[in-house]
Amino acid sequence: MVGEEGAFVLGWEEVLTDEELSVTLKVLCMSQEEFQEYKEQDGWEDDTDEEENSLLSNEALSRLKSPCKKLLCDSVLLTLESYSSDLKADQDLLNNKEAFERLSRREQQALHVRYGQKRILHRLLELIQ
């Protein structure tokens, strides 16, 4: 369900791996009986429900059912905990010209990427809480 990378790709406006995330959330929030039915039907290939086929835009994420929101929220919090610094620390480093310039070019680029990732994750938390 998650694909080869084992991760979901989030953008500022929507989930870029929306189908994978949608199916994963649904399967993980199913009861045992619902999952058994899902397996027997080989998924939702014949499902025509608009919600199932819609992109997971920021607006759609905010309308997820509570169990899906909780699962997604817990996942985002675990991901944020895996970073060695928090969003504010990265922002402070970016704003401190002297400290930023002491970093190697590679460290500066990594800081920009890490800061962007954290901003997206924090935005996702705002949408689902």
Automatic annotation (TrEMBL):
<dbReference type="Pfam" id="PF09273">
    <property type="entry name" value="Rubis-subs-bind"/>
</dbReference>
<dbReference type="InterPro" id="IPR015353">
    <property type="entry name" value="Rubisco_LSMT_subst-bd"/>
</dbReference>
<keyword id="KW-0539">Nucleus</keyword>
<protein>
    <recommendedName>
        <fullName>N-lysine methyltransferase SETD6</fullName>
    </recommendedName>
</protein>
<keyword id="KW-0489">Methyltransferase</keyword>
<dbReference type="GO" id="GO:0008168">
    <property type="term" value="F:methyltransferase activity"/>
</dbReference>
<dbReference type="GO" id="GO:0032259">
    <property type="term" value="P:methylation"/>
</dbReference>
<feature type="domain" description="Rubisco LSMT substrate-binding">
    <location>
        <begin position="4"/>
        <end position="121"/>
    </location>
</feature>
<keyword id="KW-0949">S-adenosyl-L-methionine</keyword>
<dbReference type="InterPro" id="IPR036464">
    <property type="entry name" value="Rubisco_LSMT_subst-bd_sf"/>
</dbReference>
<keyword id="KW-0808">Transferase</keyword>
<dbReference type="GO" id="GO:0005634">
    <property type="term" value="C:nucleus"/>
</dbReference>
